């Protein structure tokens, strides 16, 4: 029995040691404890010593309050508190007596605090062996944990709940918010987005689980290295990572890297645990997406690489950003900032004189999608080259085997190169030893100045020149004073002129050249008598709602305050006697109706861009301008195209200026047959949803490149486009809508999304129609589009 005495003594010592409910008493951090940012590298470590919480110095920029792998020489950071607001030496983090974890800078100003609602009931904090830092109560309940507030990394047993997200770092060693995010949306979809950098708002979805609406509940990352999306009942919906990992031998993390790729990394815990592995972080076989260069193709944003650059996937499966010929990086230390021209652009005043100063550099299998402003079909490559050289706007032309020549201009975005990329990029660059016309002009001026200086050596010439200068000065001053008179009629706080009727009569040549007629009146082409002779469109309104000047001026001010790239800008007006006229900027490419329903079909990508333009313009009118404006007559004739073929909404805000009995139709409603929402017929309140309805019809016309109502359709069921589109969606035959459109046929996912959005927009019940903000998000792919509740619930108005 003598052997029992030492064991009893040993167990007695164990009983005397203090324990907490989680069995990690020795790692607990007591209230009042603090750390200071300094070079001593003091930290709060986990029981095994594998993770540490404290300050990490980031070059010379400052200190990051972070969690990192303690036993790895690289000190890989997995979480940070102040990634966008580094602090200097002397800053502190303290677990206060009130149970709050507070980061103060060197001056004592508060930078960050958790829990944000206060630490009432907190008894201690702890750095756990899972890599989770917690603030806990005496009973061991977590009041706050770093696992619920992730930055760019997930660790095994750390789950991603609905609404939570990872934000990529800006660069590998720059931990501030970058250009990509990984989020589990409230609708259950797990998505990778580009962001509207420097904001974190979603831009373009380049990877998605595409789960059913409302089904995705949580992303599980277990100790075996499996990551998957689950439903509320625990059903696995979508696997993300499926590789099995031994946590006994390897460290594991999943990180959204600065290049927008979600990767799973492992690191051997000891050199002998895996002799085949080097002592470094190694990427597992799967990463999402597999090719970031090809996946990002948004219409806005810089994408995987910056503007004017292109993305190439390297042998290590990581993207590399390069500049095309004639371009260099803005910042050699940050390739993702994009590239700039190394030469002076072509002189648009004399483009033909500079053709010989430029040449074409070829880049096979290269493209910058969505930057085109013109497309020519059935032309040869030589013709495409010459067309770009002759066009001062053209910076790059893409020529493909179908004989299409796509003209593009800077800034170029989402560039990509690779064997699977169709088309050849023709890059226009200035020849090495040539000079720009503008530079030559400067040299010519310099020579003139030198010559003039010699001539001015004569005192007699100086006297004559002085007298001549005085004469010219007073002559110009007199003319300038005369020109200043109309400027006195500018609207207060607005760059909008109050014209006289006679001025507009002269500007239009007696209202000679008619551009079009509509519900609000007749539009005429004109030119102002300013020095730059700007072209204008003058609209003569037929019938007015108010007889007084005050009412008209008030409504014009509302329209004049609008300012958006997808609205036609109002530059002036006339309110003189019985004359009511509005003066707009001139749109050189006419109406969408002529463009869409003409002899040749506009390309699919141009139609997509026009749909985005119109949706964003309506969103501005409905939600973003100072006074909400309901258009009431959205149709192709009221969408104009500028010189770049960008869509601009016209005639917005004019509904209030019309008399109640003025209408395009024979009914007492406003709007145009075929585009009118059903509430007009039911005397229901008119809201912004009437514009949503009209946009839905217009969107179908853009997708199918035909009018909503065609009496001469090939088959009777195709007469009403909305009915036919609905039938095709229900029967799974959307290809019939675009069967003669090769570009659209190759992009059926977008066609399906656009058609579903359109059918949501034309629901009979206005409450079922989405607002334009959601419409924009659905079109961009930022929000999942569900199947409309009842595809037969709407009644077409024809």
Automatic annotation (TrEMBL):
Cell location: Membrane
SUPFAM superfamilies assigned: alpha-D-mannose-specific plant lectins (SSF51110), Protein kinase-like (PK-like) (SSF56112)
Keywords: ATP-binding, Disulfide bond, EGF-like domain, Glycoprotein, Kinase, Lectin, Membrane, Nucleotide-binding, Receptor, Serine/threonine-protein kinase, Signal, Transferase, Transmembrane, Transmembrane helix
Domain Protein kinase: 509-795
Signal peptide (UniProt feature, chain positions): 1-23
Ranges of residues in domain Bulb-type lectin: 27-148
PANTHER family xref list: G-TYPE LECTIN S-RECEPTOR-LIKE SERINE/THREONINE-PROTEIN KINASE SD2-5, RECEPTOR-LIKE SERINE_THREONINE-PROTEIN KINASE
Protein name, as recorded: Receptor-like serine/threonine-protein kinase
